[in-house]
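re: ur question from yesterday

yeah so i grabbed the chain u mentioned. its 257 aa long if i counted rite. heres the sequnce exactly as i have it in my notes:
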Amino acid sequence: MTATQSNSSQPITLYTGGALFGLPDASPFCIKAEVQLKMAGVPYVKAQGMPDQGPKGQIPYIEDDGTRLGDSTFIRAHIEKTYGVDLDAGLTPQQRALSWTIERLLENQLYWTVVYSRWLIPENFAKGPAQFFNRVPEAMRETLRQQVLERVTNNVRAAGPGRHSDAEIADLCDRSLSALSLLLGDQPYFLGDRTTAVDATAVDATALGVLASLLTPYFDTEVRRRVLKYPNLLAYTDRLMAEFYPDFAWEPAVAAA
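ran it thru and got these C-alpha cells back, copy pasting raw so excuse formatting
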C-alpha cells in the first residue's frame, strides 16, 4: 500500500522504549506501532520515549506535525486517516471482524501474561524490569522499584492473571495459543495472502509484538514452553521478524523448539 503525503514535511517521530530483552523493543505495543508504520509506508524516525511524556502516560506515542498521540490502536487510526491508507485493505467485513477479535485476544489476554511473566516471577523481574531503575539515584531507587512493582502487580490482578496460579495462567494461555494456531493454519499471515503490495494486515503487527515477547529466550517461563509446541506460530514469528526487522539479531524460535 502507498501512503499519501500529509501537510507536514517532517517524518513522524515514534517514541519507544528501545531494543531490550532480545527484542526490537521491550513493549509489544511499540513493536506493533512500528510495524504498522512500516506496513503503511509512512516515513518515520525513532526516539527514546518516556511514558510520563506521552499523552496517555505510556509508550508508544508519536509526534506528527506538532501533535502528540498515544496508544498503538489510535496511532493506527491516525495513520490511516492522515495518510490515506487502510491496513486491512482487501479484507471482507467478516475478515475485519475476525481481525479485531484476534487483536483483542492478543492484547487483552496474552499481553497480560507477558507482563505477569516479567514482573511477577521474581527471577525474571530481577533480570528484567528491575533494571529499569538503575539510573534512579540510589537513595530512592529501591523505594521507587517497589512502588512500581506494587502498581504493576495490582494492574495484573485487575486484568485477571494476577488472581491465578502459574499453572492456571499457562493453561489459559495454551487455549488461546491453540486457537491462534488453528486460525493461522498454514497461511503466511493470519488472514492469508492478498494480491496487494503488502500481504500482512494490521493484526499481524499485533501478533508479532505479543508472540515475539512471549518467545524471547531472555525470560524462562512456562508460557514460552507452551508456545514452543506450535510450529506454525514459531515459523510465523520468525518469518515476520525477518520481514519487518531484517537487521535485528532475533534468535529464531523454530531452533528452540
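noticed a couple things. Confidence is low (pLDDT under 50) at residues 194-198. also The domain at 12-83 is CATH 3.40.30.10 (Glutaredoxin).
anyway ttyl
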